[in-house]
Design goal:
By secondary structure, the protein is an alpha/beta fold. The chain has a single domain (about 1-105), classed as NAD(P)-binding Rossmann-like Domain (Rossmann fold, 3-Layer(aba) Sandwich), CATH 3.40.50.720. It has helices at about 5-10, 15-35, 60-70, 80-90, and strands at about 1-5, 40-45, 100-105. A three-stranded parallel beta sheet has the order 1-2-3, with helices on both faces.
Length: about 110
Amino acid sequence: MTIGSVAALRGNGAYGAAKAALLAWNHTLARQLGPHGATANVVVPGFVAGTEFFGTPADEEELARRRDQTLIGRVGEPMDIAAAVAFLAPPEAGDITGEFLNSNGGAVLGR
């Protein structure tokens, strides 16, 4: 399991390029690990409130701006990302490999 970022899909300088590389690498891992019964997937978060990713927690104005970018009218929380990882981690998800699971409230739609 790898944690990506919507920056890989939107572009965001070197950070976005590095996260985009994880998406390509995931396909390689899926091909290499699949014959051994292992899966390889990427959880792709969007903005996650309550973190200090940008240096300090977002203020109310920034939270509102980020919320307005989603289709569901709320920003992500750390537990949303944990739930996406938990969905892909157990043996019951063993038929899912080489995939990117977006967890961004619809701010960036899947492909």
